[in-house]
Amino acid sequence: MKSILLITFIISLPLLANAQSGLRGVVRNKQGEALPYAAIVVKGTSAGTITNAEGRYEIALAPGQYTIVFQYLGFQTIQKPIEINTGYATLDATLEEQAYRLEEVQAKAGNEDPAYTIMRRAIAKSRFHQLQVQRFKARVYTKSSITVTDLPNLAEMAFRKQLKEAEKEANFKVGVPMLNETVSEVSFSQPNTYRQKIIANRNSQGDFLSPSQFYNASFYNPTIANTVSPLSPKAFAYYKFEYKGTFREPGPDGKEVEISKIQVIPRQYGEGVFRGTIFILENTWAIHSLQLETVNNIGVTFSVRHVCSPIKGVWMPTNQRYNGKGSYLGVKAEGYYIRNLTFSEFVVNPAFVEDIEVVDEKKAPPTTTLSRGDIKGKQFDDLVKKQKEFSTKNLKQLVKEYEKQEKQARKNRKEDVTVVRDDSLVVDTLARRRSNTFWDSLRSVPLTSAEIKSYRKADSLGLTREIKAPGTDTTRKDTTKKKAPKTFTLGHLIGGNTWRLSKRSSLIYTSPITRLEYNTVEGYTAEGALNLRYRAKVDSVSRYRQIPLGEWNIGGTGRYQFGREKFVGYGEASYLHKNTRIGVSGGRYVYQFNPDNPISPFLNSLTTLLFEQNFAKLYQKDFLNMTVTATPFKERVRLTGSLEYAQRSELANYREDLKPWINWRNRTFTPNRPDNAELASTGFQTHNALLLNLTASARLGATEYTIRNGRRVARRDNESPLLTVNYRKGIADLAGSDVDYDFLQASISHSFETGIRSRLSYQLSAGAFLNDRQVYFPDFKHFAGNQFFLQQGDVVSSYRLLPYYQYSTGKRFAEGHVLAEFRKLFITQLTLVRLIGLKENLFVHYLATPASKNYTEIGYGLDGIIPQVFPFFRVEVISQWQDATYQGLGFRIGTTLKFGR
């Protein structure tokens, strides 16, 4: 019986496919050229689609009579009636270029361009249009394609074999598009809740791709992907606008609507701003469509096209297209991302009606102007009922008051108002197993010939892999990733490996060969580690997101010192429960005097062997440490406390006649004992130390959060100042401890935008030893110095020329760091310089200790010195001062990469 039903179902599949009805066709211009990504809207419904790169479209519709609207930027919108019976009807369209008429505006000297009054009203209503939508549900079809068009010759030569394997195994080839299609069910409700369920996903490489940074982007927001919107309240500081004409087209109710074409001209083009055209609907001042482009910080150009359709009177971006093209590290690529929405439910906020009139008070004052007192505490809809005409200023005030009242109402309902976005993503278990018939019924945008070919290649590769796998079920393609083998191989011994022992446990091995280093104290070293991780509890909120509620880690690190011919190492164990971690560690190890490692072991190995400069200064510690870290109060505060008992020993270079790889004239290896201005000698005898270390940090402003699949995460772009307080105590006469001091320091750091791609960052710190009865050099306050031509680490708080330990202090200190990053300063006044990604910055570093004499560095930096190849490098020139007396000039090659840390 089951076999008969199965055979019947298989036979009926083609019949089911043929039973579908709908519409298909091609959209062209008068010259017969295809119009890619033209918008097709079924009038009176929420159904619609866009054409593919070949101008073809296809849309499933039930039998009946329809009016189809064809739209394309720069062309006249047309409507065509069609009757659909069974099967697919064909309806082609030929669009003519749009004819614009100019408003009767006198172009006299000093007259303001009419674009400005249009944009002032559009900006005043931008937040209004966002709040119009109370909630909606939609089916969203997205398609992205990325094509690597060229690889550096060196890469092709060096990785020719790997590229061939990638073509066979992953369907990757230069010039062949990598495709991803997704069909999702999306819902939204005010003020910030998005729910997405992926019901179908297909990829020519077999992997799931995340949406781009423009996902759910709205040009009513002040910024989109860190770029200032033309409808931002600050738009006039960054853009000029020109009126290019007006045209008419049929509106949603059959009446014609007027649309004005506005040219968007950045005052200085480059990253952070758009240029192009935006179309604004007269009277409603909503976005009708737009075509804009921008460039990011590595020189990749993005172009954006939105076409909006009226959904219950609200113009929504139902068809979106994004194109990108550029190169990075010598790899050239281009791609696109398209998004089509079909709404199944759409609820409009009844308070935000479109028949209110917005008056530009700079052109003509409104009949009635409201004061702040007239607006404060009043209901939005009550004021709209009383009058239909508002100034742009009054409308902005009305919307702000509405949002303030809504926020208070949420507080009264005990909702968390610090959450600015609540997202969830669920992937249907059948999403990657949908048949071609299923896709044909859901796909909003037909595949092009090249895309069909790419999918066929991917399917054939998948089938080949199935045939080659003996003893496997070949009834369907296995899309699961291959698990790492649990067996041990020689490659694992050399390169390290992670073995998945079970769903909750894994064994992580770090090979000593990957951690080969050199310093003058230990000689060559090899360090390996073995760690066992076990997740006791896991909250599975989605297929792609698992939150560990309890996690154990236990392991050890071993280090062999070839110069000293000794073995050191330590063991550690930790337990994580939600936001609290408890860790215990102990053993014998070698540390830098500055616990922040001002020079990384990897970089010190290079400077020592190649340049005869042994900057790292080390001491040995036999220790037992317990550390507790917690983030209470919904992660608004971070608390760290540790108690450590250690025996600390001074170390010397393992030999006196050390030889570098290159013997530099006028250079010699220095002793391991650092020079310091406060101490005649930084040497110390072996001693015991019992140390208590407490640190608390908190943001001074309100912290905002996002929720992703139920997990609350603090926003990384929180720009409120961070206050940190640290207290260290050397506890004397307990367990034989020889240290006796109290140290207290506080710091405040802050970073905030000062304009497009411009930022000001600072860090101020001060502290003192309240009690210094017995302080050893490892207990001193050390600073982030640098004596090598390569500057690495934090660009804000690191000195550029300061010797590592010269001004380390056991008394008191004050330091300040300021970094100002500019999108446009000196040479970046030139547009070409900005377009290739160069950025300028100025910085000041200051240190005051009893011995430093107001040490100051003043510098200039140029970021992106090798554009699109090594954009993370910068060159710096720094002047050095003490007590306002010039000491000299230095140069640094800088990077934010932290090598070897």
TrEMBL record:
GO terms for molecular function: carboxypeptidase activity. The keyword Signal applies. Residues 388-415 form a coiled coil. InterPro entries: CarboxyPept-like_regulatory (IPR008969), DUF5686 (IPR043741). It comes from the Bacteria. Keywords: Carboxypeptidase, Coiled coil, Hydrolase, Protease, Signal. This is Carboxypeptidase-like regulatory domain-containing protein. Residues 1-19 form the signal peptide.
